[in-house]
Write a structure and sequence with these properties.
Length: 314
């Protein structure tokens, strides 16, 4: 058996309202593939790097471009996803196991496969290497950035946010682990592995890690909360994008208090999205700011009526 370490860089839709939703929700479109092939003795056999021309999100999101330094010009003339995927599967071989750093790359790969009408069953068995690393080395029961993991094992890291570099860094970590034991115990280990989270009912300072920004407004522990003014159940709705790093929404509790609920986003080193929620009592200044952005960009996400359909998660 060979071990395949995979990493992807992906572009995002320019706005949640413009995300492809059929036949699947395409939260990210892969624009770069990096992979390392190792034998069972963890010796590097080969590497794979390919740029992928996007079909749906052709304009690089400025946030993604700044992080990865991938430009639209660089992607011109690159392989389309179908060709890239088939070459990757052929390169992996039949007897292989795939490892990624974190849980995000596989869902993104699957959505790209399905939106192009391809067969996802060709993907070899997949493992989140963070689960095995935490059990055997870190022992902190939390997610850790790739850079931090490299520091913990005392290895110099290649520059992050390049798909092949990240795959090479992950392969370096893999060589410090007992992979057969990790694979054998993986189901049990994955069930125990969790991330730290603060209380969802805290009116300020509540933050969570997500695969993508659109997952935030689907999480009722983010959008349903206790009113900081009276403690009554409250919801938020009618989201507005201030910029790529901030959303605003209206909030209301059962006692009638009106709120402005803000979400701030930050890209983590492991290519996830950290979302922090802050709740304000509505005033004239907040309302004017919200209405201004609403006029410019419109609203998205659930309406007030939809928000109140289900019991509030408090």
């Amino acid at each position: 058996m060979n071990y395949i370490v995979l990493d992807f860089e992906w572009n995002q839709p320019p706005h949640p309202a413009r995300m492809i939703k059929k036949p699947v929700a395409l939260h990210g479109e892969i624009v770069e593939i990096g992979a390392v092939k190792l034998d069972e003795d963890c010796k590097v056999l080969d590497t794979f790097k390919m740029m992928v021309a996007p079909k749906y999100y052709k304009k690089m999101h400025r946030w993604v471009s700044a992080l990865t330094r991938i430009t639209e010009e660089e992607l011109k003339g690159a392989f389309d996803f179908v060709s890239a995927y088939m070459q990757l599967i052929k390169w992996c071989g039949e007897d292989a196991a795939v490892f990624t750093w974190g849980p995000d790359d596989l869902p993104v790969l699957r959505s790209n496969i399905l939106v192009h009408g391809l067969d996802e069953s060709m993907i070899p068995p997949w493992y989140n290497l963070q689960v095995i690393f935490d059990n055997q080395i870190a022992k902190e029961n939390r997610q850790m950035s790739l850079t931090s993991a490299m520091e913990l094992i005392g290895e110099p890291a290649l520059e992050a946010h390049d798909a092949l570099n990240d795959a090479m860094n992950t392969a370096c970590i893999l060589r410090h682990l007992d992979i057969p034991a990790g694979m054998e115990d993986y189901s049990e280990l994955e069930g125990k592995f969790c991330k730290k989270a603060s209380s969802p009912n805290s009116p300020t300072g509540f933050a969570r890690i997500y695969a993508r920004k659109s997952d935030v407004i689907a999480d009722r522990e983010m959008t349903d909360f206790a009113c900081p003014l009276c403690g009554a159940p409250a919801v938020c709705f009618d989201f507005v994008a201030q910029n790529p790093y901030k959303y605003m929404s209206l909030g209301k509790c059962e006692a009638g208090h009106e709120l402005l609920v803000c979400f701030k986003f930050k890209r983590t080193e492991e290519k996830r999205c950290r979302a922090a929620r802050v709740i304000h009592e509505m005033n004239e200044e907040h309302r004017a700011r919200y209405e201004e952005r609403k006029q410019l960009r419109g609203t998205f996400g659930r309406t007030e009526e939809e928000a109140l359909k289900k019991p509030v998660n408090v």
